[in-house]
Amino acid sequence: MKKIFILLFIVNTLLLASNNKVDDSERKKRIAKQIEIEMENEKKHAREQTFYKGKEYNLKGSEVNKESLESIKEIEPLEFDMDSVYD
Length: 87
Prior knowledge:
The protein has one helix and no strands. The chain is mainly α.
């Protein structure tokens, strides 16, 4: 019984570890791509040395990267009962 439990534990550990490596490599690629984009923006700002206002400001860089949303776990909403607060 102990041997079966140990074998299952090792197999599960290896499966989880192999799955994380794939996600980790994709994550590193996304990070490298974003760093490259930010470096280009910094070079542009260093050249121009101006502060943007209103319509000149580029809000595209503040948007959420849709590729990174797949790796975020969904949070389950908590059951909250206001009646219990006043007890």
